[in-house]
Design brief:
single chain, 106 residues, alpha+beta, 4-stranded mixed sheet, 3-stranded antiparallel sheet, 2 helices, 26% helix, globular
């Protein structure tokens, strides 16, 4: 029940944030993958994490920037993650992956 309420709150915040960009080109990527493997939250090992990584994803997809993202903590424990810049793989509970990235284009 606690996770369900927390998830609902996250979705509400995300929806309000995205609606502020409703007149722009916005796209949400659910569980972004690099060649079939979940995208790690860092561009390379322990560096350029979250905003830089999400922004790089969006730039490579033709968007201007990342405006929202969520992280799946410990994703590497059960699944592998891949870093976008270094192409390194991680399979450890210390590895986190993006569960969603929302991109914006002017």
């Amino acid at each position: 029940l606690h996770l369900s309420i927390r998830r609902q709150r996250q979705m509400c915040i995300r929806d309000r944030f995205i609606s502020a960009y409703s007149y722009a080109d916005v796209k949400e990527y659910d569980k972004p993958r690099i060649r079939g493997i979940l995208m790690d939250r860092c561009l390379s090992w322990g560096a350029e994490c979250e905003l830089p990584a999400a922004t790089q994803w969006c730039l490579e997809k033709g968007y201007s920037k990342a405006i929202y993202w969520e992280i799946e903590s410990g994703a590497g424990e059960s699944k592998m993650t891949r870093m976008l810049k270094s192409d390194q793989l991680c399979k450890s509970k210390k590895c986190d992956a993006f569960s969603t990235i929302v991109c914006y284009r002017r």
